[in-house]
Every structure is written in C-alpha cells, then in structure tokens.
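Structure first, sequence second, as always.
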C-alpha cells in the first residue's frame, strides 16, 4: 500500500470550502489546513493503485478556486512512526 501527500494552493479565503469538498472525495484519508509555505492544504492518500491517485488529483484540480497541486509519493519502508 502506498502513501502519498498532496499539497494544494488555493485562492485566499476559500480554504474551508475546498477542504469540505475534498473530504467528499473517495480515497482521501486526511485533510489539513497548513501555514508557513506557499500551500494552503495538505491531504494524505493511502492507496494500492497509482490510477486511483491520479483520479483523486484530477478531482481536486477540478475544484473551483484550486490554483495548483504538488504530489509527493512516500518511499515504502522509509517511514518511522513513534
């Protein structure tokens, strides 16, 4: 099972509405607003299929007022949980 993180940049003031819409997308495990960088939202996707990840990202990019996304796929076996 692969884990991916998607950083999302959106128009100012739209973060909550976009997060609510992202929560409805099947396959999205977590959604969190973030500060301190050029992105506004981060999501976590855990999936067995690259095809499904592509569909999730495609659905996010279709949301009105989403400006850009950056996807990071975690390296399996290189995760440390305390």
């Amino acid at each position: 099972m692969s884990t991916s993180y998607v950083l999302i940049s959106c128009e100012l003031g739209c973060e909550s509405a976009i997060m609510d819409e992202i929560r409805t997308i099947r396959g999205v495990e977590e959604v969190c607003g973030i500060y301190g960088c050029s992105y506004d939202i981060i999501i976590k996707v855990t999936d067995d299929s690259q095809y499904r990840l592509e569909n999730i990202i495609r659905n996010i990019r279709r949301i009105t007022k989403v400006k850009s996304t950056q996807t990071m796929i975690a390296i399996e076996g290189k995760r440390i949980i305390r």
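Margin note: Residues 54 and 71 are 10 Å apart (CA to CA).
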